[in-house]
Amino acid sequence: MTQTRDPIFDTAPGLPRLLEIMRRLRDPETGCPWDIAQDFATIAPYTIEEAYEVADAIERQAWGELQGELGDLLLQTVYHAQMAEEAGLFGFDDVAGTVAQKMIDRHPHVFGDESRDKTPDQQTADWETIKAAERANRARGGVLDDVALNLPGLTRAVKLQRRAARVGFDWPATDQVLAKIAEESAELVEARDELSQAEVTEEMGDLLFVMANLARHLGVEPEEALRAANAKFTRRFRAIEARLAESGRRPAESDLAEMDAIWDSVKHAEKAG
């Protein structure tokens, strides 16, 4: 009698193998104790982390790593779908079907009878109009109700501001935003000098929120801008370390004046080059 090969050892690509592996991992009798113990809340942080790792690979243009990172992110969807199926909520096919239908509904210029003769900006505006109609059909209670709580702070700030702007709650120009930044900066200085740490934290949050608003008015994605600033700082500080290493020293063996001078030299060389 020929023994049938276990499908999880079939290396042919495709989702069925991955779905079966996850089902086995979650089997209450024969699965992995760690995987069995997880729930939506415990897996959610890994989902967020894997999304960032995908973005990191793209940022670094690490194309050799991207396949694996996308696989890790896909696994998160499979994991949540398996737990949902166990709970009788929905399954992976439902997830795939829902997003497929959403793409069809949100692209009437591709899958419907609308004209494709639109600019990317017009298509973005149409996308937002369709999303607003979908939210209305779901009978959301308020304008801000479905802005995800676990987004990065700056990203969520921009989404909240964009949503409020759709109903007219927005400054008409950047001048008013800049004036608000000056006001919030003054309040932060006052809090630093006279108020509690909790109040300093609150004023710092207000200032960051307005900075995110300025980025929105300028057409800048603040998370992207901050990532670029982080990368620039890392690059230039490493150059300081390398310059000091030439004389057998580390930053702790230098001082601010020397390191600042090296920083300026590196900055000048970057701008000149």
From TrEMBL:
What are the protein's UniProt keywords? Coiled coil, Hydrolase
What Enzyme Commission number(s) apply to this enzyme?
3.6.1.8
Which GO terms label this protein's molecular function in UniProt? ATP diphosphatase activity
Residues annotated as coiled-coil are 174-201
What's an example GO BP annotation here? response to stress
Reactions this protein catalyses: ATP + H2O = AMP + diphosphate + H(+)
**NTP pyrophosphohydrolase MazG-like domain mapped to chain residues:** 38-111
Pfam families attached to this UniProt entry: MazG (PF03819), PRA-PH (PF01503)
Tell me the enzyme class: hydrolase
The UniProt entry, under InterPro entries, shows: MazG-like_dom, NTP-PPase_MazG-like_C, NTP-PPase_MazG-like_N, NTP_PyrPHydrolase_MazG, PRib-ATP_PPHydrolase-like
Query: CDD domains from the entry?
Result: NTP-PPase_MazG_Cterm (cd11529), NTP-PPase_MazG_Nterm (cd11528)
Family, per entry = Belongs to the nucleoside triphosphate pyrophosphohydrolase family.
- NCBIfam families recorded for this chain? mazG (TIGR00444), PRK09562.1 (NF007113)
Task: Output this protein's name.
Answer: Nucleoside triphosphate pyrophosphohydrolase
Organism of provenance: Mangrovicoccus algicola
What's the encoding gene here?
mazG
